[in-house]
Amino acid sequence: MKLKPNPFTAGLKSGSKQIGLWVSLCNNFAAETVAPAGYDWALLDMEHAPNDLQIVLGQLQTFEANSTTAIVRPPWNDAVIVKRLLDLGAPALLFPMIQSVEEAEKAVESTRYPPRGIRGVSGATRANAFGRVTDYFDRIEDETAVILQVETVSAIEQAVEIGSVDGVSGIFFGPADIGADMGILGKPNDPAIWEVIRPAAKKLMAAGIPVGTLVFDPVFATELLNDGFSFVACGSDASLLTKGADALLAQVKSGIA
What we know:
Blueprint: H1 7-14, E1 18-23, H2 28-34, E2 41-45, H3 53-64, E3 69-73, H4 79-88, E4 92-95, H5 101-110, H6 136-143, E5 145-150, H7 153-157, H8 159-163, E6 170-173, H9 175-181, H10 191-206, E7 211-214, H11 218-226, E8 231-236, H12 237-254
Parallel strand pairs: 1-2, 1-8, 2-3, 4-5, 5-6, 6-7, 7-8
């Protein structure tokens, strides 16, 4: 048995535009409602959603049966958590709050086996079909996407250096936290925030480093993709449910005499 290619990693390398969806409802049945929709990638969030390893496993199984690549965001840049997620078969990771080249190197190191890193070795995990994938150790580093999230002004100033660390697949801008760092809390689409993000994104693009983000505006998401962003999430399962529920109730109430 051979390791399956990772379409998200291949897409980053080829420069194809990839549309994503945040998945934070922490339930594989809920994941099944969005998995067949055809998004290029979906983010399983362990930082700001109450996901644990068992729940993430169920969601990985759900997305594996569809064409959408599941990316897991661990709660922190923690080598032990990363090891367990990779052993579960997570095809891509988004590391939150990377603040320096050193932290970027630590993140990459946690995804690599010795001598290139510190990932512990197990011969039989879900990731290698319990030992059946014969080329797993040879190919897994090339197939696993390692995305680093920059979320402060200080990190943005180092974005090219962080993104240039060997093994980094792309840089992800977190506008909500960047805005908070700028004193603009709760307004991730504020133009002042994007006046900081856009020039840094252009520098990364010029250096050949893929750039991504999350916005909750489909028009803005399309604009960013057309402007050179490689991977953009345009909403979340929770926001779709919230907006849909509110809109449905409002519509019915508005028609009551």
